[in-house]
């Protein structure tokens, strides 16, 4: 991306705009505000540059953040870890780090709101691209906040569940309280629709309409809007076809190359900090062997190409940790959404599409009659709270194998029942309790607005 000039200008603008310590404040008093679309583009290009250099922690989190999420989950055996010096033993040991993510996400939202609310030019090609990009990034940030700082979405209880502070205006004195989860989801949906209305096609801005639709599918999937999840996922899947087995083996462990199944990824250019994050992730992920439960899952299909790509004979992770959104995830979204709608034939069709591209010999398609028994793992119920059926178990197992160490498993545990499990380390037993799946709101914010911001259950205010 041709943005070196943009970045230098942005840094100057941010110094001028840094008049307020509260990251929820968005329009500084008595300071210079950008005026032209070119001025405002520096704000957006700063975050795009962070993504491309692998420095971003929150929009498309870098490999180091992905590794941290994997340390919270259950695919890697913490009890047999070789080093606890630089990695979290379990989610409860990273509470402070998890609070920091909240502030950074709202900082990005602040910048997007500045573009959306302050740019006079709304008709030029550059302005429309900036507005579409800002709406997309803001919506993704709110989705990331909802995943981390709200309880799993259940349509029947969303009105009674805590959501997020929703910041969409420029009142310096505003102190937004937490909306409910239904209002939060509606707010995010509206933002995605606004982003799509600009039909961004310039790939220099990364968040094209196809990327936005892919994230929209993720959002609908998380909020159990199965029909819309299918609609948007199918549209993007047609544009980004999945990889065949040989293509997968060649592409999955590429450091920076982008195969045709990758919708968006971070760390596409070399950078000192990005390279350090990448290297740290590769070292940390090898400090824990793959859990025996996952090894047993792969044992049922000896000729699955993912097994040798994922780990070696000593159960040490082989797969390179990179952050990307792949079309295979959309296929799994479609399969599961069809299953929730009791459309078994369609669910099996998409499940088998992916399986046929990963099992190289003696492939046998699943039917309702030959589905394996429910696999025994920590997840016992699906996203709606129903005990796993054979079909749902097969879909969740396929997702576990396909998205191994891509930062997905932690949110799968959260989405599907928030199971409690424990690890032993340093002579102690560490339990991932149900409340820990929802990260705490920063204590500083709770103290600043005690009557407006309610802490998540389980945490001391």
Automatic annotation (TrEMBL):
SUPFAM superfamilies: TPR-like. Residues 322-459 form the RagB/SusD domain. The keyword Transmembrane does not apply. GO terms for cellular component: cell outer membrane. Pfam families: SusD-like_3, SusD_RagB. It is found in: Cell outer membrane. Its main location: membrane. It comes from Bacteroides caecimuris. Belongs to the SusD family. The lineage of its organism: Bacteria, Pseudomonadati, Bacteroidota, Bacteroidia, Bacteroidales. The keyword Membrane applies. Residues 23-220 form the SusD-like N-terminal domain. This is RagB/SusD family nutrient uptake outer membrane protein. It comes from the Bacteria. Keywords: Cell outer membrane, Membrane, Signal. Coiled coil: none annotated.
């Amino acid at each position: 991306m041709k943005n070196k000039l943009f970045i230098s200008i942005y840094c100057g603008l941010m110094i001028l705009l840094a008049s307020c310590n509260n990251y929820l404040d968005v329009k500084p008093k008595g300071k210079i505000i950008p005026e032209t679309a070119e001025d405002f583009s520096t704000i957006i290009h700063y975050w795009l540059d962070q993504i491309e250099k692998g420095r971003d922690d929150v929009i498309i989190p870098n490999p180091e953040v992905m590794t941290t999420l994997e340390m919270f989950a259950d695919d890697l055996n913490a009890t047999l870890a070789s080093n606890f010096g630089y990695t979290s033993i379990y989610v409860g040991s990273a509470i402070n780090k998890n609070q920091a993510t909240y502030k950074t996400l709202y900082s990005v939202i602040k910048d997007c709101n500045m573009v959306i609310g302050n740019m006079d030019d709304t008709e030029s090609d550059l302005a429309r691209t900036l507005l579409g990009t800002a709406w997309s990034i803001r919506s993704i940030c709110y989705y990331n906040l909802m995943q981390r700082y709200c309880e799993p979405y259940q349509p029947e209880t969303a009105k009674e569940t805590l959501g997020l502070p929703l910041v969409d205006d420029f009142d310096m004195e505003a102190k937004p309280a937490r909306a409910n989860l239904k209002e939060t989801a509606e707010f995010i949906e509206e933002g995605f629709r606004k982003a799509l209305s600009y039909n961004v096609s310039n790939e220099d801005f990364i968040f094209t309409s196809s990327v936005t639709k892919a994230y929209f599918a993720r959002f609908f999937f998380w909020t159990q809007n199965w029909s819309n999840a299918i609609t948007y996922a199918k549209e993007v899947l047609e544009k980004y076809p999945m990889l065949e087995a040989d293509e997968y083996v060649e592409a999955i462990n590429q450091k920076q190359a982008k195969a045709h199944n990758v919708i968006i990824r971070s760390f596409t250019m070399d950078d000192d900090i990005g390279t350090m994050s990448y290297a740290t992730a590769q070292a940390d992920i090898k400090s824990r062997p793959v859990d025996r439960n996952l090894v047993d899952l792969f044992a049922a299909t000896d000729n699955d190409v993912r097994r040798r790509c994922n780990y070696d004979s000593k159960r040490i992770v082989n797969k390179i940790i990179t952050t990307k959104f792949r079309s295979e995830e959309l296929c799994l979204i479609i399969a599961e959404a069809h299953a929730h709608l009791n459309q078994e034939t369609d669910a099996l069709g998409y499940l088998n599409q992916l399986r046929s591209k990963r099992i190289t010999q003696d492939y046998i398609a699943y039917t309702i009659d030959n589905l394996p028994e429910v696999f025994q793992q920590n997840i016992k119920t699906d996203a709606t709270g129903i005990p796993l059926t054979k079909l749902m178990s097969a879909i969740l197992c396929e997702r576990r194998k396909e998205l191994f160490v891509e930062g997905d498993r932690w949110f799968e545990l959260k989405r599907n029942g928030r199971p409690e499990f424990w690890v032993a380390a340093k002579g102690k037993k560490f339990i991932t309790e149900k409340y820990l799946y929802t990260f705490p709101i920063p204590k500083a914010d709770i103290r600043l607005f005690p009557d407006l911001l309610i802490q998540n259950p389980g945490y001391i205010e």
